[in-house]
């Protein structure tokens, strides 16, 4: 049985002034899939990701999330964003609220849940990333890895259809990266659909269902991890992955 | 009445005359109430208006931000006493009379609002862009993001300079005496003229200090305890 | 609308009073030019004293002075000096009363600004200068103060603007600065246009400076 398509990008284009950043990007993410997007800096991977919840507005193209056309004038963007979770490179936790406050804010103000309900849901999300015991701490008191896991919990608590990850471990010290990747693996086990822009090649190879290689605003190649990493078709892909894999 | 002999006794008799002080103290205290009431009104309305203006400016639309910037510029460039006079002496000519209290409150609130808007705006601009993005990404409207995420953080940045500015502005309540508002300075000055003795002025000054020094000390303590992030 | 034009922007009145207001503006300007340097210098000296003195009492006294005069409303101070001193038998000239009052007030504010600047200059600067043989005073004059001033230039500028605005309180002791002249003119012509014109003149004088500070502060972010 073919799982449903949760996220579909068709003909996406984006330019800043006269500088094109995305040229005709096409991508499909099915339910429960973890799709990794790799590529050199400036390839447009983050821009593409940010277009998916309209933090960037595409110049042309179509983005459909669970049947909803993002670019349609009638679409209520705030409503749709509740179904899309986003995890940022810089975590972006709210420093003036404690961990519990960070996770419950949207539950209460956007989804209108009561304080008690929100707290229960928030604690569940924090449990899933192993940080329930830090509910009363403030972001400033946590390590980078812990902050990022709280950020994941914050997004997951809203029960989104799809989670977007924008280089989630790039701002972390190497020894903290593992805890975040483990949280992401656990999330995948639970069946979440995930689109991850990352530099962590080992993770992309081991944990993804599909790997997408982008360069210079295009999707150059996509396929199963063993194929993209082990036997890439395009020369540019080969050039890029050879830096990370020894002996093919 | 005995004539004081030494220079020091003379000085005390002139400037710290207990008899005169006792006579005018009740009036002066009433004046202090006016000063206090004025200070509260000005602080509340000034900061609130400034906050609203900063929020309007953060919408990013030119038709909103240009008037706000002009307002902030004009009311920071104009001397408060000039504003006071315009409201109290000029406005009656276009059928907009107001009491001395209203004129003082209005003028100083607008001045404070201009400074408050600039401080809060600077606070908003100092936040990482990611804060707004994180809030909008989970479906909050622009207003919700402002109210629950951006403004609380902007205030932490803005409160220290703003506190100093509030204190500066409410010291200007003394300007009300120029338009015959019965606050402390006015009463002290007339009492001095009436009694031919400067003790009321000294007493008035002392009352001002007794009013402001605790406020400044309190503000300093409040800033240090409430407005720091837990680390 | 016509009401506003006749009363606030009456061209005939403008033309009539402008020469007088110009004289008032001149008084405002030379008064500012007199008190600002005094405030700057005394503020700087105070700040240097506070940051460099080894005497704890000396430092404490200076701090009390600064806090005291920052809590004292300037108008109250001016009135106290101008109307109070004559009771000691000494007739104090207006300009002197204004200068003393302003100096006591301004030195405190300028001191705070300079102090922040001086404390922001890294200690290594002083150490480097002294190890090349410069004396304490030379180090201050050529290394510390220039850097401190550059750091707090917008705040200094802001304080200078405040002083110019403060000159309006001199109108209360009948100094013929711009506001006083405008008020007197208003009583003569029985029309508030002079005050509006004075307001416009203050705007013309100070708005560019306010703008300049905003631009400078935005640039350093």
Poorly predicted parts of chain C: none
- Secondary-structure class of chain C: mainly alpha
* End-to-end C-alpha gap of chain C: 43 Å
Query: Biggest β-sheet of chain C: count, sense, barrel?
Result: none
Name the overall outline of chain A: globular
Number of individual domains of chain C: 1
Quote the beta fraction of chain A: 25-35%
Give the % helix of chain C.
over 70%
Question: What characteristic shape of chain C results from the CA principal axes?
Answer: globular
Which properties best describe this structure?
heterotrimer, B: mainly alpha, MetI-like fold, 9 helices, elongated, C: mainly alpha, 0% strand
Explain briefly what this protein structure is.
The complex is a heterotrimer of chains A (248), B (231) and C (221). Chain A has 248 residues and is α/β, with parallel strands linked by helices.
Please characterize this protein's 3D structure.
The complex is a heterotrimer of chains A (248), B (231) and C (221). With 248 residues, chain A is of the alpha/beta class. Chain A has nine helices and ten strands. In chain A, strands 6-7-8-3-9-10 form a six-stranded mixed sheet, with helices on both faces. In chain A, strand 7, helix 6 and strand 8 (193-197) form a beta-alpha-beta unit. In chain A, helix 4 (115-128) crosses helix 5. Chain A starts with a strand and ends in a 6-residue tail after the last helix. Chain B has one domain (26-129, 157-184, 195-225): MetI-like fold (Orthogonal Bundle), CATH 1.10.3720.10. Chain B is 79% helix and 0% strand. The mean pLDDT of chain B is 89. Chain B has nine helices and no strands. With 221 residues, chain C is mainly α. Chain C has a single domain (2-220), classed as MetI-like (MetI-like fold), CATH 1.10.3720.10. Chain C has ten helices and no strands. Chain C has helices spanning 2-8, 11-52, 56-71, 74-84, 94-120, 123-131, 136-151, 153-166, 178-189, 193-219. In chain C, helix 2 (11-52) crosses helix 5 and helix 8 (153-166) packs antiparallel against helix 10. The termini of chain C are far apart. Chains in contact: A-B, B-C. At the B-C interface, helix 1, helix 3, helix 4, helix 5 and helix 8 of B face helix 1, helix 3, helix 4, helix 8 and helix 9 of C.
